[in-house]
Every structure is written in C-alpha cells, then in structure tokens.
Amino acid sequence: MTPPGAEKVVVPMLYRCPISLELMKDPVTLCTGQTYDRASIEQWLEAGNTTCPATMQQLETLDIVPNHTLRRLIEEWCAKHSFSLVRVSPPKPFLDPKAVATLVQEVSRAVDPLPALQKVRNLVRDGERSRRCVRDCGGVPALVSLLSNQENQEDQETVSGSVSSTMAAEEALAILAALAPVCDNELIQNSLVSGSEVATSLALFICTGSLDAKVNAARIVAAILEADCEIQFSKEEGPKVFESLGKMLREDLYPKAIKASLKVLLDLCKFEWNRDLVVAAGITAPLIELLPELQKSNAEQALGILELLSTTARGSAAIADHDLAMAVFVSQFHTISILATEHIVSILWSLCKASRDSIVAAQQAGMFAPLLLLLQVDCAPRTRQKCSELLKQMKSSWNDHASCCAQHNFFLPPLTPL
After folding, report:
1. pTM beyond 0.90, yes or no
2. Cβ-count burial of 289 within 10 angstroms (0-12 exposed, 13-18 middle, 19+ buried)?
3. Structurally, what CATH architecture does the domain formed by 6-80 represent?
C-alpha cells in the first residue's frame, strides 16, 4: 500500500520515459545516447520507425543497451519515497539460439508449418534482439522458401489445405516484413532476390492478399529496393501491382496501408520504366487529393513520387490535368517542410517546362507570391534556380497577356505579386 502523501511526490524528469512520460521500469539507451523505457522504445521501433523519438536523428543501429546505472538510481528513489507499488521489471532473459534454430527448422520441415510460424511471429514481436536471433538462425531463407512454394502447394491441396497454406504464407510474410529492417544488403540479395518466384509471390500478395498481407508485401518490396536490389514484375503482374498499391492509398481507416504504399511507390518510381505504369494505374489523383491530409513524412513521400512522375510526358500531363493540382500545391507551399517545398518547386518547373498552359494555371492559382517569398529565404541552389526560372516565365506570360489586352483596349489590373 502506498503511504499517505506519496502520491504528491513529483517524479524527476530524469527518471521519466520521454515517450510515455511515466516512471521508467526498465531504462534502455539508444545509439544516440537517449534513454527510454524498454516497453515504449520497443513499441516505437516495432512500428517501423528508425529515428530517435527525442532527437529525430536517424539511428545507425537499432540496438538497445540496458542502462543499469539509471535503473539502480530509480530503484533507490522508489525505496526512498516508499513507492511500494512500483516494480522495476528485470531485464528480459537471453534467448536460447539452439531453441530458436530448432523452431526455424520446424518451419522448414513440418507438413503444417502454421503452428511453428505463429511461435516465430510471437518471438519477433519481443523486440530487436529476438529478430536478430531469428535472422542469425537462418529464418529468412526458410521463410522465403515457404513463400516460393506457395503456388505449387495450393495447386495440390484440398480447399481446407489451401486455406491453411495461405494462412501459413501470410504468417511467413508478416515475419519477413519484421525481419527486413535487421537484414543487411547481402542477405536480402541472396535470399529475397535469388529468383523470380519471390517477385511473383509478393505480387500475388499485393494484388489478392488480405490488407495486412498487402502491407507486409509492400514493406518487403521496399526493403529489397532499399538494399540496392532490383525487383521486376512481369508484364502481366506490373499493372495489377500498381493498381492495388493505388487502392491502398485510399484506405483511410488503415494508416499503415497508406504509409507502406507511399514508401514502395517512391522506391519503385526511382526506376524510370515504372513511372508510366504508375500513371496508367491512376495513382496521381489520390496522391494530389490526399496531400492536404497527410502527415509530414507521408506528404514528403507523396510529393517525391509526384516529382518523379512529372519528369515523364504522361506523368506531367496527368498532374497538370487534375483540377485541384495547382490549388493543392499553393496551399501546401511553405506549410509542410523545406523538402516538401523543394519537391513542389521541381514539380511546377517540370509542368511549366512541358506546357505553357501550366504557367497560366500557376499564375491563376496564386503561385507567384509564394515563389517570390522563397527567393528571400535560404534554399538549395537548384531550387533557387528553378524558382527564378518559374518567376521569369510567369512574368513573361503576364506581359504577353497585358500586351494582348492593351491592343484590344481591355482593362488589366496592375500586377501585385505581394
């Protein structure tokens, strides 16, 4: 029982987790030197984040180290203030690699691997250390092999067996998505890009799997591309994959689907041959329409995709043809981040370079003033150059219009950019 008055004691900020703001039970430290409660930071990392929550620095490693000194200080503070209900949890026990290796072998050899897969999935949910252990015990090749054999198994099994096989494959997919952040480029190259079967399986999940399976498959494709590896879908698979990714962007009630779709689309659009497929799938429309509702990182990725699409004739035309495009770009100028603003400038530069109509549309949307303001603040040299060119084009277009109006004795109000 907590003594009277104990609840009035203020917990020192040093002992509070920066994420939960609660007293830390198991303090651990990241590579940035910031300390968090183990439960809070593991939940942060397992959600796919790779930055330090306090400093937003990119983490060079996802390893977490127990802070024994702070742990001892918290225990002494709790004892001093008679916080008898507070229990500082002991560190998690070390994993037995032999037991994990046996479980991975069971996944490969069992007639019905689903029970073993569920145990492995529970294991990787425990945190970074567990995922690394499964990886080191050969988990990735075993899971990839199961995915590659999925189609043959479905052809040979009964209806109930096919359902079981699909469930096992989706379970394996979820585990692979969790393991991808701890896999180096060589492991991804040797295990995930070794043949066309993996690409076919991933395409199948993105097109016909459950929503969770679509998200996990998209994450794996993104991990492959980030490892400087290529993944090419067949002529039949490609359009269907991009169409499905476009539908994922409209899953308003499932933010993970939007995030996964944006990430993989950005990585896929870095290859020029994919950009026309993205345009053909009608993805430019949801990217533009969702932009005002997206969070910072998602908005930056959406604009990054649009910038890449604007470099092609079809992409530029599709963006320019959207009725809301210019209005959305104006509304998001200077409001998201410096990177987002640079993306918008590049998009506008490509659109105006491709069509004079886009210059007029930008003027009518009120883009002149934001561009002029951008020249007065620090920005990248390339962005400054494009901004200057856009302003010259708009001014030239306005002068041409003014001259035409003067010839016909039309009244034209003076240009007031600011």
Report:
1. no
2. middle
3. 2-Layer Sandwich (3.30)
